[in-house]
Amino acid sequence: MKHFTRTDIDELARIPRANLINSISGYKPANLIGTVSRSGNTNLAIFSSVVHLGADPPLLGFVQRPASGVDRHTCQNIRETGVYTINHVNTDIVEQAHYTSAKFDRDVSEFEACGLTEEYLAGFAAPFVKESRVKIGLRLVDEMPIERNGTIFIIGEVEHIFLPDEIISEEGNVDLNAVETACISGLDTYHSVRQVARLPYARPFEVPDFDR
Amino acid sequence: MKHFTRTDIDELARIPRANLINSISGYKPANLIGTVSRSGNTNLAIFSSVVHLGADPPLLGFVQRPASGVDRHTCQNIRETGVYTINHVNTDIVEQAHYTSAKFDRDVSEFEACGLTEEYLAGFAAPFVKESRVKIGLRLVDEMPIERNGTIFIIGEVEHIFLPDEIISEEGNVDLNAVETACISGLDTYHSVRQVARLPYARPFEVPDFDR
Question: Which of A52, A75, A155, A174 could bridge A64 with an S-S bond, Cβ 3.0-4.6 Å?
Fold first, then answer.
């Protein structure tokens, strides 16, 4: 068993530390966030930090790195327009999706540069990704600065969901395996996913007698 | 293509809405959070909302449901002691891990009730999960109330990491496939994960010529 203390972590070089800490939260969702500036330049960026906050109202959050650099176009565009899209990365587009993380100038659209296609649906102002199979339109609700490291937690309310008819059940369960939604570990590794178990709602008096 | 507008989502019954919105963020990490109350009662609960916030300092966040109910023992214990553990769920313990979500009384330890084993390492006050293969000890840094839905975003700094020697590379990359770390979709579905691609650091002038 390898043990890293906080001192060990702080003494790692920048790249190994980034790889290690980006790995330890477990598998992360692979999503592309689509935005457009007020002047009409589109932007697309991969994020592994989208997180469910609640269903009523339907809220999702994600983490934006410090907005000081020229490369933080997602956050700038969301502030300008109030809207954005979250699009699942599937295993067919992991390479295109990954290269959206390159630091392109603001007048370069990652859609064009990375071979993905802008799609406008239901009159929503922000661009969806045509190649994605699960797409969500959101409106900005709140920005929470995380003081400890200068990141920003961006909270949005779901306004639209688009997905194939055949992957959603009557009970609202979505079969993400069927559309090959991918997940991420660390900073650069992409994975496919297969179901191993679906379990009932857990009640204290129905817990199995686990054999210790 | 199925299209849900915000009105459609709001008109769904509670369970289908919860299933749908819990599914659309993509695959989620499967983690068990271990805590202990000031009086010594241990608690273990599954969370799918752990998110990477930054590597320097090493910070992770997670979302706690409204702390009003008697069942929010994780948050209560973290407030009392200032420390907690995050332990990866692997495919061998998905059933045990899932049943920690049942609403046990505060004097019941989910370790005992769900057949998992408390482990104390490096003098850290919060209990780790012996059956887990990647374990993190954290200290509470901040709590951010999410006003829109009454949840709380809990932020912690990593103090300890324990993992098998053979799954970490010189560059700090961690092979989560090798220890069968699981991921979650929706509220009740568990998955195993297999790598499909590892991609280089993305620079604008090195983007492949994607054939459109």
Answer: A75
Question: Which residues from A are below 8 Å from B193, CB to CB?
Answer: 27, 183, 185, 191-194
Q: Do A185 and B199 touch (CB under 8 A)?
A: no
**B70 lies within 8 A of chain A by CB:** no
pTM for the model stands at: 0.97
- 10-residue mean pLDDT profile of chain B (212 residues): values are 97 97 98 96 96 97 75 88 98 97 89 96 98 98 95 97 98 98 98 97 90 59
Cα–Cα distance for residue pair A103/A99, rounded to 1 Å:
9
What does the DSSP 8-state code read for residue B90? B
CB neighbourhood size of B49 (10 A): 21
Tell me the Cα Rg of chain A. 19
Amino acid code (one letter) for B188: D
Contact residues, A window 87-116, toward B, CB-based 8 Å cutoff: 88, 91, 94-96, 98-105, 108, 113-115
Three-class DSSP category at A16: helix
Q: How far apart are CA A66 and CA A72, in angstroms?
A: 8
Contacts of A27 in chain B (CB under 8 A): 27-30, 176, 181, 183, 193
> What distance in Å separates the CA atoms of residue A184 and residue B80, rounded to the nearest whole number?
34
